[in-house]
Design brief:
This protein has about 160 residues and is mostly beta strands. Helices cover about 10% and strands about 45% of the residues. The chain binds fe (ii) ion.
C-alpha cells in the first residue's frame, strides 16, 4: 500500500512508495525478537548451518554460519525480497555484479543474482519478505542457479 504526502509549498499530493521490508528490517534489527517455527527451524547443508530466528509470513529472519574457505555460488531466489546483513567475520558479498564487504545491509531483490565468499568463515542474517503467495521456508529451497541446481543443498554437491 502506498502513502501520500502533501507538499505544503505547492499544494501537490505525492505518492510515497511504502517499503514494508525496509520497515521490517529496521524494526527487527532494533528489537531482535525471536519467533522460530516449531518445526524445520534449523538446516545443516554443505558447509552451512542455519536457524530461523523469526517467522511470521510473509516475513522471516534466518541466521547462517558458513565454514572458512567456502563459497555460496551465484544464485537467485524468485520468491524472496531480502536484506543480507553481515553479523560476524569477513564476507565478500556480491549482488548484481557489485561487491559489498563493509557490513552495510544489502538489498537483494527477487531475481537478483548474488553469492558470497567466506575466506575465514562468517555469519550473516537474511531478513526476508516472501512474495507471490509463497510461504516462508529455508531460503535455499527457493533457488535457481546457472549450474542447474534447484536448491542450495544440490549446489553444494555439483
Ligand atoms: Fe541467497
Amino acid at each position: 500500500m502506498n502513502e501520500y504526502e502533501l507538499n505544503k509549498s505547492t499544494g501537490e499530493v505525492q505518492v510515497v512508495e511504502k517499503d514494508d521490508l525496509k520497515e521490517f528490517l529496521d524494526w527487527w534489527l532494533e528489537n531482535k525478537i525471536t519467533f522460530p517455527p516449531k518445526e524445520n527451524s534449523t538446516i545443516y547443508q554443505g558447509d552451512t548451518f542455519g536457524v530461523v530466528l523469526y517467522r511470521k509470513p510473509p516475513f522471516q529472519v534466518e541466521l547462517f554460519i558458513v565454514k572458512p574457505g567456502k563459497e555460496i555460488k551465484q544464485h537467485i531466489h524468485p520468491n524472496v525480497d531480502s536484506y543480507e546483513v553481515n553479523l560476524a567475520g569477513y564476507i565478500e558479498f556480491t549482488c548484481d555484479g557489485k561487491v559489498y564487504c563493509d557490513g552495510t545491509p544489502v538489498r537483494v531483490k527477487p531475481n537478483a543474482w548474488h553469492g558470497g565468499l567466506f575466506p575465514k568463515g562468517g555469519s550473516f542474517i537474511s531478513v526476508q519478505k516472501w512474495i507471490n503467495g509463497v510461504e516462508p521456508k529455508f531460503v535455499g529451497d527457493d533457488w535457481v542457479a546457472h549450474d542447474g541446481s534447484k536448491t542450495y543443498d544440490e549446489s553444494t554437491k555439483i
